[in-house]
Amino acid sequence: MYYYLYMDIKEAIKERHSVRQFKDLPVKSEDKEKLEVLIKECNAESGLNIQLVTDDPECFDTFLAHYGKFKNAKNYIAMIGSKSIDKLDQKCGYYGQKLVLVAQTLGLNTCWVAGTYGKGKCKADKNAGEKIVCVIALGYGESQGVAHKSKPVSKLCKVSEADLPATPAWFQEGLEAAILAPTALNQQKFQVSLDGDEAVITTKRGPMTQLDLGIVKYNFEAASGHKVR
Ligand SMILES: Cc1cc2nc3c(=O)[nH]c(=O)nc-3n(C[C@H](O)[C@H](O)[C@H](O)COP(=O)(O)O)c2cc1C
Predict the structure, then answer these.
(1) Could you read off the pLDDT of 164-197 as tens digits, one per residue?
(2) pTM, rounded to two decimals
(3) How far is the CA of 136 from the centre of ligand 1 (A)?
(4) Which of 16, 109, 144, 190 has CA atoms 20 to 30 A from the CA of 9?
């Protein structure tokens, strides 16, 4: 069991930005082991078949990956699950983000990749009835990336800005973490609200919005310590 500190994860949420250019270095064996242990736990809890693949540059050796400016991308976490799993995309987002944040605490940079990789080239083992939902590129970054631009809080939260200071501290922390969450094409189609003493996060429809929703929910829960509906 790999224990990581609650504070580390909150720091990781703030410090993590997409990184697509990596140093030409293999993933350290101790980091690999820690990720493998966590992946096993996530798979047991979720029913997903998440896999860590290292030293496979082919997956990012495509026109789209070069177009997306990937460099030395040869390690990735493949987010895989049976097509029959309820809310498969949302689950992949949720557990993938858990892994992304722990990777960040290990000094590994990441980028969620649903489009700009070679789908047919991914080396992960997919069983019958399973789907590769997306991959997460990972490695030691050439830089730490830059913070994404964000929509105004009024677009992302149903509580008005005037009423926000009166909401519980945990809700404000969760909201801040939700706004820092990566979303596909930085689309931020989610909305956070407060229903009694429960946080609710919903999303508009659109490609990859369910993956995004899982990611945003994980960020909110990890920072606030409160379950989201
Ligand atoms: C579900 C999902 C899919 C993504 N797919 C791609 C992709 O195919 N190619 C790429 O270069 N970036 C991809 N990204 C990265 C986003 O562009 C990036 O997360 C977003 O701009 C926010 O920036 P940040 O991660 O630095 O906060 C994806 C992100 C998410 C969450």
Answers:
(1) 999 999 999 999 999 999 999 999 999 999 999 9
(2) 0.96
(3) 9
(4) 190
